[in-house]
Design brief:
Carbamate kinase, EC 2.7.2.4, 2 domains, about 400 residues, single chain, VC0802-like
């Protein structure tokens, strides 16, 4: 029998009517022969209301331990209501919170932004399998954890999403379903543009970047636990049907699951275009990049300043790029000069752990500083850091930087 992990966000359990609809959707899958683990957030606005009360009553005097214990009441309440609703529909269910011995999510003792102890959580998740084998639907608090001393912790913002993907991974589930107030991932915020369309599919890498830059559908930290062998989708609560079509989350690619590093095999050339306050002039960047695209020239990176735009181009075609961009400079009144500069190396380090690692750029660049290696340019995303250095320093810099992954 396949295992499904279904996570219901606060809006999807925002009132009694929605809770009943959610419970009915779970029972429907159960009756179809599937084992279902439910992860539930606090009922809509509950946590916000609790935090306001704490702020009004205690203010800054509240300790992190006290706050984690207090805000846990939202999820602790919602699992009891949800589990009881399932039982009212004639199916056995048990709620599970951090005060119980069979609680699965084990963390360190950072009360408000705890890190998961994956090995311990994987072992404790066997308790859920025992319930599933008995025909019981477990309803687990999202967002919460427990440290080795039995203290309640929280997983930080988006914690319920983390719980769902984490348990899906530990239980080797067939599918993780995230139930939200939208029908899936949209091409943009539908509240801002009516032309927004639902996406049928999106990759983990795209979803992570989308979430990092403000999309509220799914927290990027949760995707760290997305197993490439487990199906996942985001659906809306309106249909009351877990089998409904939403947006499928694809991947991640195998190399995105690993810590990797790479050094480009050939030098990259630096081309700098200058002009007075060109960042305030419309269309300059577009004209430069369109010209390179029209000439089938790839760009490895772009750096912008108030009076300059720097482009990183494969050395083998840098002369051609220099020539075609010079034509742009000559005809554009806002540009004054262009230079073809040094040969540089590009070092890329990638790890899904970077998203949870404060100061990762410092960790990457500090060994270069100590060894007096100058950084020409640096760029980063949630899971990777790209460093450009002088070509002659490339191999040494690569060896220094890759140690960050160990």
């Amino acid at each position: 029998m396949e295992i499904i992990v279904a996570k219901f966000g606060g809006t999807s359990v925002g009132n009694g009517e929605r809770i009943k609809k959610a419970a009915e959707s779970v029972v429907k899958e159960y009756m179809a022969g599937k084992k279902v683990v439910v992860v539930v957030s606090a009922i809509n606005k509950t946590t916000d209301n609790i935090l306001k009360i704490v702020n009004d009553a205690i203010g800054e005097s509240v300790t992190e331990k006290q706050l984690a214990d207090i805000v846990s009441m939202g999820e602790i309440t919602s699992v009891r209501v949800f589990s009881s609703t399932i039982e009212s529909l004639g199916v056995k269910s048990e709620y599970i919170d951090p005060y119980m011995d069979n609680w699965p999510v084990i963390t360190d003792n950072t009360y408000l932004n705890a890190k998961v102890n994956f090995k311990a959580t994987e072992e404790k998740s066997n308790e859920l399998l025992k319930l599933l084998d008995q025909g019981i639907i477990p309803v687990v608090c999202g967002f919460l954890g427990k440290d080795d001393n039995g203290n309640v912790t929280t997983l930080g913002r988006g914690g319920s999403d983390i719980t769902a993907f984490l348990l899906g991974h530990c239980l080797k589930a067939e599918e993780v379903i995230i139930v939200t107030d939208v029908g899936g991932v949209m091409s943009t915020d539908p509240h801002k543009l009516r032309t927004a369309k639902k996406l049928d599919k999106i990759s983990v890498e795209e979803m992570r970047d989308l979430a990092t830059h403000g999309a509220q559908v799914l927290h990027p930290h949760a995707l760290k636990y997305k197993d490439p062998n487990i199906n996942a989708k985001i659906i809306g609560f309106e249909n009351g049907d877990l089998s409904t079509i939403g947006t499928e989350i694809m991947g991640p690619a195998e190399d995105q699951m690993l810590k990797t590093s790479a050094l480009n095999s050939k030098p990259i050339s630096v081309i700098a275009v200058v002009g007075e306050e060109i960042l305030t002039k419309k269309g300059i960047l577009s004209e430069l990049t369109d010209t390179l695209s029209d000439n089938n020239i790839n760009i490895y990176g772009i750096s912008t300043g108030q009076n300059s735009i720097t482009l990183f181009i494969d050395k083998d075609i840098a002369d051609k790029a220099h020539e075609v961009l010079h034509e742009v400079v000559v005809r554009n009144e806002h540009l004054s000069s262009i230079s073809l500069g040094m040969e540089i190396a590009m070092i890329t380090v990638t790890s899904p752990d970077f998203i949870d690692t404060p100061g990762i750029i410092t960790k990457v660049t500090e060994p270069l500083r100590k060894n007096k290696i100058n950084i020409v340019e640096i760029s980063s995303s949630q899971t990777s850091v790209v460093v450009f250095v002088d070509w002659n320093d490339g191999k040494k810099a690569y060896e220094l930087v890759r140690r960050v992954l160990k």
